[in-house]
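ok so I'm stuck.
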Amino acid sequence: MVSTFKWAITGVLAVSFAVFVTFFGRLPALRRTPIGFLHRLIWIQVPNLLLSVDRKLTSGRITSSVSRFGHFLMHDRHPSIVIFFVVLMAGGEYLYLPAVWHRLALFTKATVVLAVSLPYIFLYLCCAADPGYITTKNHGYHMTLYPYDHALFHPGAECKTCGFLKPPRSKHCSVCKRCIAKADHHCIFINSCVGYGNHHWFILLLVSTAVLCTYGGLLGASLLSSSIGQQFPEWSPWLPQRHGWGMYLVLWGWGVQTNIGLGATSLLAGMTAPLVWGLLVHTLYLVYRGTTTNESFKWSVYQDDMDDGLAFRRKMSPDREKNTLFERGCPRWPVEPEIALTASDNGKPPPSLAGEGNWERVWKLEDVQNLYDLGLWDNLGDIFVTDYKFGDTIPKVGMLGDAAII
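replied:
not stuck anymore, here's the structure
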């Protein structure tokens, strides 16, 4: 019994850790940590080793087939992961709810219905919403939605695939095959990009899923503990030393095995919850910093250039004359860029970029302003309210710092 319980915990922890490494190992802040090393090992070094072995044994036929399948999974739009996500939630609830429903008070039943329903609602809204597809019809609107910061986004850049000027904060998605306004990232769990049109639904999906996993895990543990206490009156979930750790695990194992649907689902929910909370905290931190996942990676590239002495800045006048063919301005945005930032390969700044005066090297992100960070409440307002108006008070633009590249 203890062995089964230990194996179940070990299996769930292993899967959870693998998912954590997959999603967070790419972050610039973890690049030089064991998590970043494991990510490179799992997704780069091991596949390269298998590829070299397959080339010797089968002339690459196996890896070619696997590569095509992997490319389909990761680089083509399909609902496979969304279906898996829904089946995983629905299957867990099918095992969980019948075992507990008759034991719940009316108020608890109402909270369970709410907690179970919200992730499905927000998942549908995430998938169905336009994430911010830029088309020839709405291109002009998106050109004025945000100002160019002359750091990450410079006027005049053209999307070679879509064939039009890139609006500020936009990015072409190779999976969606379209440019996305205020692109954050492409999320396989919603089969779409997270962008200007659905960022708020994505945050609410994370919140509701984190609450569901936490609530399900805690409620299940409480009910399992109650069942154990009925059979073993000396049982206490808070005092394992009363029984010794060995007997403590035996009793938990007994509770899980006698309520297998409830026990397995509670175990999965409780151990999945930290992953979802971690992703939610990371997402909200980016909101707090006034940046996106895409922009965070761009800032990490600048940090590398700064370390090599290849990043430069110079002043810009907020009242400068703009070339309206490339830079139409953003009437709703309360501040204008005052610094132009660029990087070069040869250690010399390009003379053609906007700005005035001499270029100077910049060594730290702390010395750079993020034009899109207007404070937490305005950052949230820009996400949750379409065409958000910032009011008459000019907010203070946030400084970047190393935290911007988390």
